[in-house]
């Protein structure tokens, strides 16, 4: 009878420790996503200033400017809990920002404008912070996903409703390609 109680106690302790580990991993993912969310908000706050600066120099580039504004608004409208939707919207916004910065190459006066240069530097810093936050989030998501899929913790994860978290990845395959540089 003592052996049966000891086995039962070990099983209960295992469930408790595994459950707590899953909760801890889920919290790490949520904290990591919060870090990304803060950086994405900083980027979204910089975009209107960047757009207004570029507008003064590039009146005929309205389609590019409007696309960035529309994609920013779409990214901001994604519900807070929709991580996959936010990842997709932010990926599209990042591509549009790249096109906007490419427009600036056509305007030497704009590139020399101090306000534009400072906004561009701030955007580059935020993009670097987003990259670091993405790496942290993806690591936390990986740790949780391993626990959710690994035996025997997957049995406990399934019983308590723990699921896999999506990775924050590059959605467009063209963005993964190595750029061609020609002189």
Automatic annotation (TrEMBL):
Q: Which UniProt keywords apply?
A: Membrane, Transmembrane, Transmembrane helix
Q: Which family does it belong to?
A: Belongs to the LemA family.
Record keyword Zinc-finger present: no
Q: What is the lineage of its organism?
A: Bacteria, Pseudomonadati, Pseudomonadota, Alphaproteobacteria, Hyphomicrobiales
Q: Where in the cell is it found?
A: Membrane
A GO CC term attached to the entry: membrane
Annotated membrane topology: Single-pass membrane protein
Main localisation: membrane
Q: What Pfam families does its record include?
A: LemA
Protein name (Swiss-Prot/TrEMBL): LemA family protein
SUPFAM superfamilies, per the entry = LemA-like (SSF140478)
Q: Does the keyword Protease apply?
A: no
Domain of life, per UniProt, equals Bacteria
């Amino acid at each position: 009878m003592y052996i049966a109680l000891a086995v039962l106690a070990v099983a209960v302790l295992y469930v408790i420790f595994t459950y707590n580990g899953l909760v801890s991993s889920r919290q790490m993912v949520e904290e990591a996503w919060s870090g990304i969310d803060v950086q994405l908000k900083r980027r979204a706050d910089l975009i209107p200033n960047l757009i207004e600066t570029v507008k003064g120099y590039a009146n005929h580039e309205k389609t590019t400017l409007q696309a960035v504004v529309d994609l920013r608004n779409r990214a901001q409208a994604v519900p807070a809990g929709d991580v996959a939707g936010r990842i997709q919207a932010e990926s599209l916004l990042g591509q549009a920002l790249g096109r906007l910065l490419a427009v600036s190459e056509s305007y030497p006066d704009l590139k020399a404008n101090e306000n534009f240069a400072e906004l561009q530097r701030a955007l580059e810093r935020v993009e670097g912070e987003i990259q670091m936050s993405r790496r942290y989030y993806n690591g936390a998501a990986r740790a949780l996903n391993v626990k959710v899929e690994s035996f025997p913790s997957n049995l406990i994860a399934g019983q308590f409703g723990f699921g896999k978290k999506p990775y924050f990845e590059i959605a467009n395959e063209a963005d993964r390609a190595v750029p061609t540089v020609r002189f």
